[in-house]
Amino acid sequence: MILSNLLVQYLENPIGLESKNPLLSYTLTSDVSHQAQTAYRILAASTQEHLRQEVGDVWDSGKVFDSRPFAIEYAGKPLMSRQRVFWTVKVWDKDDIESEWSEIAVWEMGLLDESDWTANWIGHGDGMNANPSAAPQVAYDFELKSERKIAHARAYISGLGLFHATLNGQRLDDAFFHPGESDYSQTVYYETFDVTNMLRRGSNAIGIVIGNGQYVNFKINPVMTLEDGTEAPEHRYQKSDSGYTREGIYGEKKVLAQLEVTYDDGVVEIVAATDESWKLTDSPITFNNWYGGEDYDATAELEGWDLPGMDRSGWNDAVIMKKPLGTLRGREFLPIRMIEKFPAASVTKLDNGNWLVDMGRNVAGFPELVLRGTTAGDHGTVISMYPAEMLNEEGTGVDQASCTQSESKKYNCSIINRYTVKGVGEEAWHPIFCYQGFQFVEVSGFPGEATIDNFNCCVLRAANEKTGTFETSDSVLNRIHELTERSIESNMYFSFTDCPQIEKLGWLETSHLMFRSITSGYDIRTWIPKITQDMIDAQTTEEDNRNGDPEGKGYVPAIAPEYYRIVGLHRDPNWGGACILTPWEYYQIYGDVTLLRRAYKTMTTYLDYLETHTQDSLLIGYAQMGDWGQLNESTPTVLVENCAYYYMLSIMVRIAELTGHHEDTAIYRLKADEVQRKFHSHADCYQPESRHYGNDSQASYGCVLFSGIVWKENIDTAVTFLKEAVRRRDDHLSSGEVGLKQVFATLGRYGASDVVYRMVTNDTQPSYKYFVDNGLTTLPEYWNYQELWHGTMVRSRNHAMMGHVKEWLTSYVLGIRPEEPGYRRLIIEPSLTDLIETVKGSIWSPYGLIRVECVRNDAGITLDVEIPVGATAEIRLPFIPAEQSAIGSGKFRFSIKTDGVTNSSLL
Length: 907
Description:
Elements: E1 2-8, E2 23-29, E3 39-45, H1 48-52, E4 59-60, E5 72-73, E6 84-92, E7 105-108, E8 122-123, E9 136-144, E10 150-160, E11 162-167, E12 170-171, E13 175-176, E14 187-194, E15 202-211, E16 235-236, E17 254-263, E18 268-273, E19 279-282, E20 285-289, E21 293-297, E22 316-317, E23 319-320, E24 327-330, E25 336-343, E26 346-349, E27 355-371, E28 382-388, E29 390-391, E30 398-399, H2 407-410, E31 413-414, E32 416-420, E33 427-429, E34 436-444, E35 455-462, E36 469-472, H3 475-490, H4 509-513, H5 515-519, H6 527-538, H7 542-546, H8 573-576, H9 578-590, H10 594-611, E37 614-615, E38 618-619, H11 637-658, H12 662-679, E39 686-687, E40 692-693, H13 698-707, H14 715-728, H15 737-749, H16 753-760, H17 768-773, H18 785-789, H19 805-813, E41 816-818, E42 825-828, E43 838-845, E44 848-857, E45 860-867, E46 872-875, H20 882-885, E47 886-887, E48 890-897, E49 902-906
Parallel strand pairs: 14-24, 16-31, 21-32, 42-46
Antiparallel strand pairs: 1-2, 2-5, 3-4, 3-6, 6-7, 8-23, 9-15, 9-19, 10-14, 10-17, 11-12, 11-15, 13-25, 17-18, 19-22, 20-21, 25-35, 26-27, 27-33, 27-34, 27-35, 28-32, 28-34, 29-30, 36-43, 37-38, 39-40, 41-42, 43-44, 44-45, 45-48, 46-47, 48-49
């Protein structure tokens, strides 16, 4: 067997790790079919030479009989700050044949103790920032005097809200929006950069620009133009809602930086650490706001400001500031990167003299301005760019209503990126401290004639690897799949955001409802632990209650990090319950139990909190969202919330068993049984005479069947009633984001994918086909987006919350779904309807790639499958005999003739 892709905490050769018992993983491949690992041995050592001599002076696991090549917890000597650990692994196959050792990989610990930091948080000074909308820059010169050989050098940096750092004028990496969002009252992330090859003997300089992000959140020019036309200063859009906010989640701009050099002899020298000897001044960024945009004055640039020897005598001394309340933690999730950059699709001159730039599709990111041939005469020219998802009704410019919660319709409120021209020939600029959701950009003040060469579209998202593929012979399904993936990617930031313009907040329900849709296309093994930590941090404590939080101990908000508590939309078990359901989905897809262990206390405390809101064992009137986003349907909220409550309790029985909390299993089983009984005695949930659930809506049956709260003897009847509910609406979907996922999953589970296909491809609204037929390139927030366009509350055109069709496409059309956690056992059951003749695609699993291609023609059906080492699959297609349906790893072909004769063979 061949071993490759060695990962630590699901990262490749990471540095700055926080976890003291990191998880080790690797991938196995083999030319032999039906192959599997039966045991492994891992060596971890202080040097590569030790490993070459098969000496694990840090850890020797010995021969461990385990079939999993992933989520193996390091169990060696205690790890220390800055420690480098080299490791390698070998395995034994199904015949107990030993492999060669893998290539050597490495990881490095971060700064694990507070005492490791000599740096201080610096900035303008507490209460001394006269211009909170601008971005200051700090710089520091230092000497590298020692002649000793450098082993490696690291820069440890955190900046709140955001930072952008250089060393000797060179950007430290290609990522954006460091260090990552969090509940800053609980957790503050820092970044570790490898700067070994950026240092010079002698003089060096480090420069850092500090942006606002969510931490420095404020209203810019809060006096807006009133609806009666009263004049007021320009208002830049800022998301803001009233309600409780935790102390320490906001604060003033500051930065922490420590640059260390480790020499060959093991000596560590701190060559730069933030203190009052650092210099501070204004950067050319005169305005930055996470929502409202960014302004850059190129005429204010200080040439060489971040290079050694720069005259900074006119700068201010930095001031030591209060450190944030949260604990410093090394970042172990992938950063935000520019995934794609492409030129504008078209540029058109408008009647008002502005230019309309069309990027061709809706994205999350920012526009890049490219100027050529500017002269001194252009010096000081201000170019304003207004990003938007829509054009106004007249088609004479952009309409930002869907990006500003409709404030741009009511007030003088805008999202703007501004650039002041320097006039030096070639100039290019894009924001570094904000991003937007947009397809169009209206540009004013552009010097000369604009073309597509002057504007690029920069697409950003979390750098989670794209691992899945999907394609059919049905072009409509392909377009729907593309539409959904674009929406997922547009909201894949530090949280799974609700939209990339209006809110940019981590509404929690999608982290579990959309989990399988996301994981069918992307590897999110580092992303979900970060989101789970956000939930752990957001849970209220007794101290929060004493400090004025009205919810009391154990509450998990609808949004995490909870930058805003949107009162009236902050309590619902499908939202707060993500603290249970998201780690559970993580275990189901990735087979990794560690998140369940980490979040267990949060889960039990949340269920204790929910119990205080029950009446006669049921949640009554607690949930505020219910089946959010439903159209022409009103599924009883009491049904939706108690299906979620029951599902969480029943899941907790299994989680308690998995995590060794055996004493809790009977407690949660009894509570779940009681909720089920009481549910069936509540008139709004069940009518025993007719055996109808809820109000006979699609979601009523989807929720009860998905959650398992339905009486077993009612399952077949409930499935029949669900199909009838769809037929009553002429195959239109009507559910919101909770019910829709559960309706699709239920119909797929009970063999009714043909019903889902008709719903998805319905020619008329509401359906996904209607979206693509009307030129949308991402999913809108609501099914009736066109009706809302003419109203006073125009909503986002780039939401992923209704993207559950992707789960159905991959689980029931492509037909790959897990039967055991981590896809150790899986089912392959592609669906070929009358209109689908070919379906092919792949899903990544912890064992490796799973691939399927199914083709139907006049001769019959051909099915090609690829199963990774260690996994087994059950093939479910008509006419495949039972003795041929179970296969192990390898590449196989099944040929099903029209006369019923079936053949299978290795490829």
